[in-house]
Amino acid sequence: MPDGSRKVKINRMRADAALEDHVARLLACTQCPRMHRPAVSGGAVASRVMSVGQAPGSKEPVLGRPFAWTAGKTLFRWFEEACGWSEGDFRAQVYMAAVCRCFPGKNKTGGDRVPAPDEIERCAAWLDAEIALLRPALVLPIGKLAIEQFVETAPMTELIGRTFTLTRGGVTFDVIPLPHPSGASPWHRMEPGRTLLRQALGRIVRHPAWPEVSR
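Above: the chain's sequence. Below: its structure in token form.
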């Protein structure tokens, strides 16, 4: 093997090992006492595309993967319709992160509790580390809380269907926001949300970083 190829292979192995170590430490995190452990991870998927959800629901820690319930079914259907990807394709090709990695619990009205600012701040260190490790070219924040971690707060009609470019931690990447696929929100099922969602998905699957899946 030529020296250049050997160095590339060694560097790739080191990067993969660093990502595996990162995920192992993430799953063992106990920094937020109000959160319901365990943390949830999509696994050490080495990709230049990252999705960033909001926080796991009650089902995800049990099933051991993000977007494992009804919102996930909607999310993965979007990509099946946009580019023919299955859920398995998405999970194998996209690094799945989140604003907070543990289930926040329920609020007084019975809905999922919104993570507190201090919890978001602590968990941001995991996201920053992932950006440094993966150096993504494309980030897909899903839902208002996730979108706000990357771009200034604005009406969804001014965010969905657009591409933003920013630099975080010395890494420059494109951001294409998506609405949250929750069944509780009708935004993505009615106009102009439906059209803007299609525009966003079109931008994603045409992005140079979007991988092709071999079948």
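The chain has a mean pLDDT of 94.
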